[in-house]
Fold these 4 entries.
Entry 1:
Amino acid sequence: MPGPRSDGTTPTPAERGKARAVVRRLEERYPEIHTALDYENPWQLLVVTVMSAQTTDENVNGVAPLLFEEYPEPTDLAEANPEDVEQIIFSTGFYRQKTKSIIALSNALVEEHDGVVPDDRDLLVKLPGVGRKTANVVLAEAWGRPAIAVDTHVNRVSNRLELTTEKDPVKIEKDLESLIPKKSWPGLSMRMIQFGRDVCIARSPRCGICELAPICPSAGTFD
Ligand code: SF4
């Protein structure tokens, strides 16, 4: 049985039914969905997800091939000269902090996990530079685990659909978990993110062509 929402209340059957309808339509729109970030293994996914903060996936995909050519394994990046890494990832912004994080997390992986990305949120968030959102992305995407990563798109789309009234990502995650069957959690974030990019756009949502409009309380309120 799903748990309560972040405010302790239990969703009604009608609220659960609406959430299931949202998920169904998103699954119909995006039957196969994966992150737009390019990666070949869980460690690379972890690194590119950390690098994707405050920039576009395209920017990260532009520098990742050279980064992983120079540093093919966690042990290589763990021992890297920060200035060399900064030069490679410069165009993704916040490059000094990101360099520190990806070197430190690679080092921690090597020292504490034999270079293997743990399949466990509590262990993931202990890695340098890895927050709950990044941990959930890796759990869902790399391991197919039931985890919902809440970014700005998931936040916006969930609020417009009134699946939550919260702004805090952890509370939104709990509200979505409470409403949506666990089997649909792994691809949910990616579907909402892509939907937020394609249809439920931040400044000008395309309600006129949106298949969720009949069940969306915010439909047509942006003119
Ligand atoms: S109807 Fe408009 S606000 Fe609602 S989900 Fe669709 S695009 Fe977003």
Entry 2:
Amino acid sequence: MSNSSPWNHLEEWRHYSWRLVHKAAKTRKGPLRTPVLATVDGGRSSVRTVILRDVSLERDVLILFTDARSSKVAQLEKNKKSSLLFYEYVKNLQIRVNGEVTVHVADSVADSYWKAVPARSRFNYAARLAPGTVLEGPGDGLSEAWRNDISPEESEAAYENFAVLVFRARRVELLHLHPQGHRRAAYTRTESGQWEGCWLVP
Ligand SMILES: Cc1cc2nc3c(=O)[nH]c(=O)nc-3n(C[C@H](O)[C@H](O)[C@H](O)COP(=O)(O)O)c2cc1C
């Protein structure tokens, strides 16, 4: 393993990993685009795959979209503590992020992201009943209007179910598996926005 590898330099490794996450959101490609979001459901954990929609490197914020009626939203409204788990299998890099989520529905944050959601993608928020509702048979829960080319005006009906999850990162843990020596590091974000890191036994 070369000494110039990013995982041999504490601060550089965090920047490197954060840049990879940012790139996945921007290019809409690669395994880092679909992390696992964990929430607390009463006394249990609850996990699901989500799509990473946006990243602010300056504010250490990650953006996800969901249906405001989904279970995860109810869970986050009770307990905003949450985690995101990323695995980049080509680079053998695991990224664990702990943070807090604020839910935005029908406000200026939701509004600004909604404008960029194409009409054809708005069906994700358009089921007649809440996600997770029991059906009599197989189905996607959508009304007939969504099966054809829906106009931007008609697609506006889904806005009321559209939620933006703003995930503020507080702690990041990195793990790189390598035959010549694994590397693990943890970083905590201070109130002033600085990151303090340390190496850990993998
Ligand atoms: C590849 C993939 C991407 C997904 N992306 C999202 C997403 O961006 N937002 C979302 O709410 N659900 C997404 N889902 C569905 C969730 O995994 C989950 O099934 C759904 O949101 C209901 O979760 P909940 O009942 O815990 O709220 C995705 C599923 C897969 C397989």
Entry 3:
Amino acid sequence: MKPKVLIGVTGGIAAYKSAEVVSQLVKAGCDTRVVMTESATKFVGPLTFAALTRQKVITSIFPDTASGTEDVIYPHLYPATEADAFAVLPATADAIAKLANGFGDDIVCCSALSLKNNCKRIFCPAMNTQMWDQPVVKENTRRLLRLGWHQVGPEMGRLACGTTGYGRMSAPTAIAQIILNSVF
Ligand SMILES: Cc1cc2nc3c(=O)[nH]c(=O)nc-3n(C[C@H](O)[C@H](O)[C@H](O)COP(=O)(O)O)c2cc1C
């Protein structure tokens, strides 16, 4: 059976790179689903991920309709409860804070609350260097690591905002390989 991978896309400029990761996971034979925060949809359209995965992309905790099967009525549970790996990429400072503290007010962090215990949890921070250097971001990151999450990046490099430093999301191929290693 194909491994089930759930990708959570949050609202950073690196969101466009997550499409390449999703493409590589699909090509490698993963049953890949995507959930996106509302902010993420301002950076890249859900249709991109729907076309790559040929599956519905979920952008809200609340269903589009008040009738249907349980996977339609409970988007905060399905596909999250069935995922073998869950990767948040890019992981914004905001998403890291929410994930580290058990928030459930968007579909990405709410999906994280529905994962099975042995689901691999991966996050790929990406943000401006001064954001990444904030003590509160560091503390939230350490908290996620203590909770069993696996951190990938960020890397040093030129950032979209024009500065150079730590904050760049790791390369899509490297991220895809780490996700694949966690499920195969
Ligand atoms: C152009 C632009 C680029 C942004 N890039 C980032 C980023 O790379 N990393 C980050 O943590 N926040 C970034 N932000 C701020 C987030 O979009 C903001 O904190 C948002 O609330 C995150 O929502 P989410 O975590 O629910 O997706 C950016 C905002 C704008 C307008």
Entry 4:
Amino acid sequence: MMGNAMVVINAMPSKIHEAIKKENLSIEVTTRCTSNCTYCFVRSGSSEYHDLDYRTVLSIIKEGYEIGYRHLHITGGEPLLWGHLFDICDNAIVMGYESIFLNTNGFLFDSNTLKKLKSIKGLNLSISLLGFPDIHDTFRGYNSFIKTAQAIEMALNHNIPLYLFCVVGKSLLAHLPHFVQWAFQKFPGIKEITLIQLIRVSGNADKVFNELLTPDDFVSLVRIISLLNVYGFSVSLLENPLAAVVAQMLELPWFSSSPHLIRPGRLTIKADKSITIAHSSCQSLGTYSRGKLHRILTSEVYLHGIEDDCNTCASCKHMAVCRKAGMQRPSEPFRDMQETIPYCKRVLDSLL
Ligand SMILES: C[S@@+](CC[C@H](N)C(=O)[O-])C[C@H]1O[C@@H](n2cnc3c(N)ncnc32)[C@H](O)[C@@H]1O
């Protein structure tokens, strides 16, 4: 308290308090990148670049730790381009963070970098691979497949826990079973192939629009993942609970639970200091300053944003089956180009 001014600190709802113990606090440290991906939601449509400064990131991780976060997600742009990465990771582990999940394209790996990464307690890496060489190079730049494959092998040689992040558009979907089998053979030791449904972003070239999955494609994707899981391949679909609903309706075995993109405890601080719930969402909840994480997590806008939907879903005949499979709100509008009828409804209607 200063003078007569009273600072009111809202108590954190227990639902949020419990969630953040398990949730990643996501930080986009830079939007600069060593790749030039045509489909990237971070870079598309903008020629400006942003970097967070060291003191801001230190403040974010301190505040995050104080309010209960124990897991960090560091992303970009390309986080290995950001000069303070190792200092921040060291600080986070000393503070008491239990794990750090780092997204990278691996282009800047050398043995020194990999030794440093290996020495970070609780570090898991993802490297992005978009499919066989022709598909990968089409979307991530000429000759990038070779660099990516080398990076994957280097990380595995250093025994760093590694996930392959594979964005699925129509091109990869057409070869997915073959690709998954090939990737596990070529890179034995990867922990998982994490598939990510391609989403629409501003400023995309037409060829990316044409890659978005239609409702029928999405159903095929679920069938393929289910079969791959039955055959013992560790494959999941990131933050896409609609897959579990489809699997349930088709009576397919479905092994991986897939939380919603928007969920309690989720926060991302972007390189321009804006704060959003998820990395791919654009709706800013404010600009970072000390104390802001707590204020946002206890704000009405945030609490309303992560609530179960009771408008669109209430008038949808699929609501009961969705809730049973853990889907609490409609698909995000950026799943394809049509916004009038939610993507999830069109997918589920196609099964009737
Ligand atoms: C934005 S990148 C940043 C980290 C790093 N530079 C990399 O290449 O992985 C993080 C992940 O987001 C994925 N991503 C980017 N744009 C996407 C989109 N439009 N739809 C789905 N995933 C996307 C990337 O493929 C990558 O796996």
